[in-house]
Amino acid sequence: MRRLASGGEIDRSRPLSFFWNGERLSGFAGDTLASALLGAGVDVLGTSVALGRPRGIMSAGLEEATGFAQIWSGNVAEPLVRTTAIPLYEGLRAEGRIVRGMLSDVPDEARFDKRFAHCDVLVIGAGPSGLASALVASSEGKRVMLVEADVEVGGALLFEEGTTEGHTALEWVRAARQALDAAPETIVLTATIASMLLDQNGVLLVQRVGALLSESERGALPEQRLWQVRAKEIVMATGTLERPLVFPDNDRPGIMLAGAARSYLARHALAPTRGVVFTNNDGAYRTAFAWRAAGVDVAGVVDLRPVVAAPLCERLEALGIPLWVQSGVIATSADGAGRLAGVTVRSDAGDIAIPCDLLAVSGGHEPNVTLPSQLRGATVQLSPVADTRVVAPDGDESRSFVDLHRDATVAGVERAIHAGVRHIEHVKRFTLVGTGVEQGRAARTNAGLLTSSLIGESAASVGISRSRPPNEPIPFTLMAGRATGERYEPRRTTPIHAEHVAMGAVFEVAGQWMRPSRYPRAGEDARATIARECRAAREGVAVVDVSTLGKIDVRGPDAAWFLDQLYVNAIGTMRVGQARYSVMCQLDGAILDDGVVMRLGAQHFFVTTSTSHAAAVVDWMEEWLQTEWPSRRVWVTSITEQYSTVALVGPRARDVLARVAPALDVSREGFPFHTVRREVSVAGIADAQVARVSFSGELSYEVSVRWHEGASLWRALLEAGATRDIMPYGLDTLQQLRMEKGFLIVGQDTEALTTVYDAGLGWLVDERKEWVGKRSTRRSGNRRSDRAELVGFVVVGSDEVIPEGAALTRAIGAP
What we know:
alpha+beta, six-stranded mixed sheet
């Protein structure tokens, strides 16, 4: 194709440069990437999936089966995008990727977001029917959303001649758009694909916002937007798809749908030097007439039908355009680059060779049923006016392509039938027709017609293969929207985080929390740091930030009863000021979480959970209260981020605590193990809570203060313990200390089916009461003697550190 000197809807005053396979080319505002490539003389975009044959652009819209590209945004690529769907913009970078795309190895820099919307009427497709439907609904005061895949509304009216209500087609389209834009309850979304049809009138829309933006706006607004819409009514005005014809070598660059050829001429001023039209219907004749009006040499029209309407014949004759009826293209030739150079027509007069650079084909039109077929909507295929298949003279159908994207041929369909395949969905999978990126929009009907003719059944009974959502590829990052990186999984920090940073902590993520792994000193490797921190906790005094522990406030007259139902040991027998380690299980008897329950009052409990299960335990409690025991008077409140907690650990911990809490009796008799003291003043912080519990096995106190006072508490403890060589320690040391004592972490040391007995915690269970999961633990399968058990081990005769997650196996030859 070539760019004409005038005409089209492009803005010639705004030239745009773009890059194709690294080469700088130019087009105009109003071009798509496809039209810009054709205007720049790029006919061959790449090679096909299986046979490596040259392929170009065969449509101007949704039917595109070969014109795919990889679009680059910075260092991030979006693979396999239809070139017909990308409006040209300054600096666009693209590569020909007909077969498969390439994922970039850098974080996605593209901008995506999501919108949620409800409307009374959702109209999908802004052609004449869609525009008329939206105008009627809008005039009735309904909330209307009109969705169009193109950057302009109008559909076929953008390139077809004619008048509507006394106006030209384009005038009517512009008036309709102005009326819809002025309607207060109407939204028009262009460059938007209705990609998925969901139950209950839900629709997933993908809008290429960047296609509608100026160069200055593109850096500030999202490139793509995912709309999740729920509508009372949906109007399917998706129009029709033009069907290609199947004949030998019908895949060459330069063979294009007739409607696409008219669209490129009317909208982008693109035309061949010498064109031929090959059709089985009247509609394609308009392409020949439009070409001739633009000064194109039209070599002729080839029609498969034996009879053509007299007005068409008369007009062709008046324009001097040859017509061959009951004839067909039986071969094509190519130049050295693989582009179309000519066609061979078989007619009653014999075979005729016609040089040309574009062949416009049309096998008729069919409704675009991609969306309703996603929900298994029924379709009935009517027999076409004429067949869409032309048999090669030598009987070799291996170059007659049914699906250009998948390199599926007539010969392949014949092999499927000979292999005993009959159902169209089985034919699809045997031949791969319709399994490509474009879901076989240009291929599935021809595949159905071919199958029906080969097995001798009606086209209506064979039907067409269904489509799967989405009907256009959706980047995973678009599905995520802005929920990427920390927006997807936030990095949570404790109020002591700045103190950890100042002390040179190395961090790791634990349940979204940024927790210190260790506090290395100059010249120390990780092993030396952990050894130093462990020594401080065992022999002196150390502190660790445990603010991330789940903390739950449980209150009410039935609070004790409620916790008795969830935990395996007795909670209701606890005295005020007492703490008790316990475990809760799921219905199948598997451990859900463990923690310490502290009784702060007759109807008041302070429950701690593991960091990673804090939210799950709250959900578990609420589920039981809301579904099984709604009449029980219990109130559950997550207070994880209301209190900051520091554990003071080691033989000298009592001394340090006594310095910062002089009014507290910290003696062994006055503050025994598994007790808790409230409303204590610690380092001048009133209303602190101190619990004597331990996760290291050493003497330990957990001091909890209000969240914003956590950093002050941390600094005060370090200052009070400075003369005793107090040290902070992180998760690495915490792991080593707790493993030495055999203290487990649910989810790390346990599996999805681990029971309290498998974990060696059977001593906790109070058999005198019922608790959630108890009945399941009594099942014979959960009490087998050969079940896996959690055990500890000691490395003998070596100081080697076993890597975390390593598997223990029996040595070869060992008994």
